[in-house]
Amino acid sequence: MKLSWGDWKNKILNVGVEPDTSDFIREQVRNANQSSVLSFIYSLVSTCFVAIIVPPPYIYIPLAGSFLYLAGLWLSYIKKRDLAGMSSWFISLLLFFWLANAYGKSSNAYLLFIIAEILAIFNFMIYDYRWRIFQLILPVVFSVISYITHFSLFLIPTITEVERSYIDPIMFFCVLFSCGNVVWIYGNHIINHNKEVAQAQAELEQKYTELQVAHADLRNANEELDRFVYSVSHDLRAPITSVMGLLDLCESDKENLDKYLALQKKSMLKLDTFIADILHYSRNARMSLSPVAINLETIIREAYDAQCFAHQAENMEFEITIKGKGTIYTDEFRLNIIISNLISNAIRYRNVKATPSFIHFEIENQPGLVSILIKDNGIGIAKEQLPRVFEMFYRGSSRTSGSGLGLYIVQEALKKINGTISVTSEINVGTHILLKIPDMNRSEIKE
Q1: 410-440 confidence digits (pLDDT tens)
Q2: Quick one: pLDDT at residue 444?
Q3: Distance between terminal CA atoms of the chain?
Q4: For labeling, which of 33, 133, 193, 296 is most exposed (least CB within 10 Å)?
Q5: One CATH from 3.10.20.30, 3.30.565.10, 3.10.180.10, 3.40.50.20 for 289-444
Q6: What are phi and psi of 294, to 5 degrees?
């Protein structure tokens, strides 16, 4: 396969970059590779110009230095990132030292020491490796040596004044090119570094927000657990205490034994209901979803028959109206909990003065969504109590014999199947409860 120029460029710049390398290290290696390639190109071009004037063997030194720049790619390849990061700089500094002392002070090559020091300062601020202090000191040392020797340590004696007049502009070009190289590499690094900082800050803010949400959830869970433990311990003890008191009465009052046994049965039924609600709450919280095709009329009638028998309300008017298909694909266990609890509440809080008491189910099955409206003419719920009816252990009526978990479990079960519930009610008129339940497919299952 033929590679384009962009492919070759990325291949060269990514030498030594591994797939799992962090963004910062990747950028550091790419900068080192880029510096090696650019320095090689500009040094080779400059050497070619100088070769017109400078005779062998003097020209061999910058020519060898040009090819030494490629050693940075090799150091990146063998994962010597620290050495690769400073190889171009060190080779440049040696060439700068040679140029300044070979062509003399008039060539302005000594200005390259300033660029080397600026590069060292950039590296000191940006990177973190062992040679940073060495980089800061070495340009100063070479500058002092060059100054003491009057920039003549490697002076080329055969260069005439006319030839030197050509060399000076070339050296000036080298200085400008070096400045451009600095601006390009470190300007690009600063831009990428700012992007990384902005990205890291955004990720930090997101994690902080997630942490706040998790903290709030944990606090709510702890508060809910405290309420749960308190209420469970109280509600479990109440029927047991009642039964123990009735047993004492049975021993002392044999004539009303049937009455006391009936009261004991009522207390034990209350305890059984409460334990069943706790089990439903626990199973809803930990069980994964198991959607199946469910016949709505069948599951509603079975729930009504069970609740009607338990609460002795066989004479209530019960009606189901279905628009559309009569099946839904959802979790059967949770749907049964939802329907059973709502029917139980409608029966438990029926208005005995109403003739007749009724429960009506109106079902509308639209594509992807089933709406279930449950109407009754029971005692109703006061307007100020409606916002609290879904709270754990909240009891809004003095008539209640329930656990206070029913509507809370209904809401939690609906959350598991991505459903919603809304309630409207009026005292001594009745209650309307609207359920909206998605007709699930496998991609919508929420574990």
Answers
A1: 898 899 899 999 999 999 899 999 999 998 7
A2: 46
A3: 46
A4: 133
A5: 3.30.565.10
A6: -125, 130
